[in-house]
Amino acid sequence: MITRRSPARALLYGVFYRLPHPVRRRLVRMAVPKYIVGAVTLVTDSEATGHGAGRLLLLRQPPGRSWSLPAGLLRRREEPIVGAARELAEETGIELPAQQLRPASPNAVVHAKGWVDVVFEVAVPASQTELVVDGAEVYEAAWYRLDALPRLSPATARLLAYYGMGPLAEPAVDPESR
Fold first, then answer.
1. Helix/strand/coil (H, E, C) string of 89-149?
2. In which band, very low, low, confident or very high, does the pLDDT at 33 lie, cut at 50, 70 and 90?
3. What's the pTM?
4. Which residues have a Cβ under 8 Å from the Cβ of 156 and sit 6 or more positions away?
5. Cα 34 from chain centre
6. Residue 112's closest CA among 155, 79, 73?
7. CA angle at residue 95 from 98 to 163, to 5 degrees?
8. DSSP reduced 3-state for 69
């Protein structure tokens, strides 16, 4: 048995779906929230070993008071993984095929102000990776131990917390302390 909820609602949908597709799309775009989508890459040092010895690639960008991750906005119709590889190359000089990046878990982080970060991971050997910055968009790129991170931008600190890293991450629970 099918129960109809509201005749007025059914009428509204009927009118909406009779409109030409471009008009419907424009109406939907006016009514739904809009998001800015960026691609972020967590680049770790594949050579770092031992407890707390992991290293993360960070960037110092204008105005230069804190550190952030390689990231940027997607171009129109650009796949997030392609945008992440492009931004990584532009900001650090690390040129990798997009297929070498792995989706992080979670792969997308939705921020409160209408911002979505699509996050990828890759591990490269720091000792064999030349970092190249332009001095304008990126002042400096450097590897930092996860247990000795520099001052992070607030957005970077919040994002890293999703992955159990940085100053805002929940401390790991020692199973023997229970």
1. HHHHCCCCCHHHCEEEEEEEEEECCCEEEEEEEEEECHHHCCCCCCCCCCCEEEEEECCCC
2. confident
3. 0.80
4. 58, 66, 67, 68, 69, 166
5. 17
6. 155
7. 60
8. coil
